[in-house]
Write a structure and sequence with these properties.
- This protein has about 210 residues and is α/β, with parallel strands linked by helices.
- The chain has a single domain (about 1-205), classed as Aldolase class I (TIM Barrel).
- About 30% of the residues lie in helices and about 20% in strands.
- The protein has helices at about 10-20, 40-45, 65-75, 85-90, 160-170, 190-205, and strands at about 1-5, 25-30, 55-60, 80, 95-105, 120-125, 150, 170-175, 180, 185.
- The chain has an eight-stranded parallel barrel with strand order 1-2-3-4-5-6-7-8. It has a two-stranded antiparallel sheet with strand order 9-10.
- The longest helix is centred in the last third of the chain and has 18 residues, at about 190-205.
- The radius of gyration is 16 Å and the shape is globular.
- About 35% of the residues are buried.
- The mean pLDDT is about 95.
Length: about 210
């Protein structure tokens, strides 16, 4: 199970999360987010990271040409679409795509089949925010045939990590607010405790 930490806004946090064990880091290019970062600032951070760490750009209802330009400027490896983007949008994006879906009790998982050959990030639905709320949804409803392509987000934390690792078993998890001291600032102690717990679970599973 891979780990993506989203909402990176500074080099110190990026290096700390990477060295702790994060496989991917997320940079939010949606100006309505409390964790927004400019493409130029993201580029400066990315220059300090390992080439083996995935750098993911998060976009909300953005034009493909703007996404591609930002990806080139910031030197991203992948794109995360975090709103109601139609399947055709993916065909115009030059990097691998993660499509986010905001899930509530009425969410129709059948919509995933309209987005083939990508990974799906499932987050809790919120009327006011596109992610980073710290809220969960009913993970038990995730169809088993999709779990190897699911990135689980929404309220993922050290408190439910064992349930996710042993029962839900997604391909990856995405964290942001549960590892922060404030929006956009990661907490070193929380990050260390989380990865220590994950290492413990991995050892027990061997």
């Amino acid at each position: 199970m891979k780990v993506k930490i989203c909402g990176i806004t500074n080099t110190e946090d990026a290096i700390m999360c990477e060295s702790s064990g994060a496989h991917a880091l997320g940079f939010i290019f949606y100006k309505g987010s409390k964790r927004y970062i400019s493409p130029e600032a993201a580029y400066d951070i990315i220059q300090s990271l390992s080439p083996f760490t995935m750098k993911v750009g998060v976009f909300v209802n953005e034009l493909p040409e703007t996404i591609n330009k930002t990806a080139l400027t910031a030197k991203l490896n992948a794109i995360q679409l975090h709103s109601e983007e139609p399947p055709d949008t993916i065909n115009s994006i030059l990097l691998p795509v993660i499509k986010s879906f905001r899930v509530d009790d009425n969410f129709d998982y059948g919509i995933l089949k309209n987005y083939p050959n990508i990974f799906y990030l499932l987050d809790a639905y919120s009327k006011s925010e596109y992610g980073g709320t710290g809220n969960t949804f009913n993970w038990a409803k995730i169809p088993n045939n999709y779990k190897n392509k699911i990135i689980l987000a929404g309220g993922v934390s050290i408190d439910n990590l064992e349930e996710i690792y042993t029962k839900i078993k997604p391909a990856a998890i995405d964290l942001s607010s549960s590892l922060e001291s404030e929006p956009g600032k990661k907490d070193k102690q929380k990050v260390n405790e989380f990865f220590n717990k994950l290492s413990e679970l991995r050892r027990e599973a061997c």
